[in-house]
Here is the input.
Amino acid sequence: MTNRAAPAQYGDVSEPVRPPGSGLDAFDEIYEREFDYVWRNLGRLGVPPGDIADAVHEVFLVLYRRWNEVDRTRTMRPWLFGVARKVAATVRRKDRETPSEIDPPNAEDPLVAQRDLLWRAMAFLDDDRRTVIILHDFEGHTGLEIAEILEIPANTVHSRLRLGRVDLLAAVHKLRGAP
Here is the structure.
C-alpha cells in the first residue's frame, strides 16, 4: 500500500500546526478525560439521545472559544457542567419548538427500561431541581460542593434536592400509571 496525498480539490486536510505554548495539548487532554462526563450529564439534563453528540460538541466548542479565560488550575468538571446545563436548556427549548418524529426505542432489557423511565421522569423536573439531583445523586457531589458549583446557598441545595426527589418520585408514579 502506498501513501498518497489527498487530491488537490480537498485542500490541506492535515492536522493544523499549533504554535508552541498555545496550551491546546491541555485542551485535548481535557477533551479525552471529560468527554464521557459531559455526554452522561447532557443525557441526564434531558438532551434527546439523537442530539447528545451535537450538544457535547457545543460544550467543548465553548471551552475552546473561552480557553484563555478559563482557570485551568481548578477542576474543569464544575465549569463544564455549567456549560452543559446551558447547552441542554437550549436544546430542550429548541426540541419543544420542533416536535420529534422519532419514536423512542422499545426496550426489552429491564435495566434499559428502568433507565429510560428515570430519564423521562427527570424531564418532568424543573431545571434547578434536576441539576441538583444530577450533581448529588448521579455525580456524588456534596451539598457544599454543589452550592459552590451553582453559586447558591447550601440550604437552597438541600431544599432543591428534597423537593426534587419528591417531584421525581411523583413523575415515576405518573409514568407508570400509578395513582
Residues 97-103 have pLDDT under 50 and may be disordered. Helices lie at 24-44, 52-65, 77-97, 110-122, 127-138, 143-150, 154-176.
